[in-house]
Amino acid sequence: MSLSPDLFENAISNTLYREVGHGLKLTFTNNRKSLISIKRQAGLVYVRLSRIFLLADENTVYDIVRFIKGETLRVPRTVMEFAEKSTLPPHVAQKVLSRTNPVGKVYNLRKIAKSVNARYFNGELNINITWGEKPRRKKRRYGNRMIQLGLYDRDLDLVRVHPVLDSETVPVEYLGLVVYHELLHKKLGSKRGANGERRHHGAEFRCLEKEYEQYSWAMAWEKRNINKLLNLRHKLA
Predict the structure, then answer these.
(1) Domain count of the chain?
(2) Can you give the pLDDT at residue 92?
């Protein structure tokens, strides 16, 4: 007998509503960076919870309840440890991957990724890649503004590229660097630093990133054109 994907959401939803109360407003996300967020307003508790926790054990779920109810100020260690070793349930990943779209108005990401894979990774990587659906944040900061140009999602094994780069004004050499950067994340993964925190851009990563043939030129282009990309992002939003 196959289980309905909604069954998992219903199970954890029922527990949270029973323990937290009817003031709970629960939304599930596919987000790994923000596993759980809480906003309290007008007597209601708005919670956004990653689907990573759909298969969580009973103890983890009740620690999530404690955090939502304010019994602990920080996300409990058990919750973080569960998320660390878990990925999105297969039915969620399959649903997301079925909606990927690598072919844009100007650029075909699949072709670019294939070229980058052949040149820098000996064609060894299996790549899922897509244009993002809407503007997202990127950790390249210019003043108080930022734009997320690319992201490797290890749960989905999927590279997402910001649609702002699907433009004739963006040179393919720069787009290639964004794809190469995310494929390095796929190949190297993340490593823990001396303080125990995960490091995504360590010395090895930075060294390999500069092996991209047009690295210096592409970074100079980004510096000259970042304001144009930010403005174009606002038009897409």
Answers:
(1) 2
(2) 65
User: Strand, helix or coil at 124?
Assistant: coil
Burial code (b: 16+ CB inside 10 Å, e: under 16) for 118-143 equals eebeeeebebbbbbbeebbebeeeee
Alpha-carbon distance of 26 to 48, in angstroms, equals 6
Residues 6+ apart with CB under 8 A from 236: 134, 135, 163, 164
Whether residues 106 and 79 share a domain: the answer is no
**Torsion angle of C-alpha atoms 176, 152, 220, 174, degrees rounded to 10:** 20
- Pairwise pLDDT comparison (117 vs 140), residue with the higher score: 117
What's the CATH code of the domain at 190?
3.30.2010.10
Each residue's pLDDT tens digit, 190-223: 665 444 455 667 889 899 999 999 999 999 999 9
Return the minimum-mean-pLDDT range out of 41-50, 155-164, 188-197: 188-197
CA distance 183 to 47: 32
Residues 82 and 105 in one domain: no
Query: Of the given ranges (58-67, 193-202, 227-236), which has the lowest mean pLDDT?
Result: 193-202
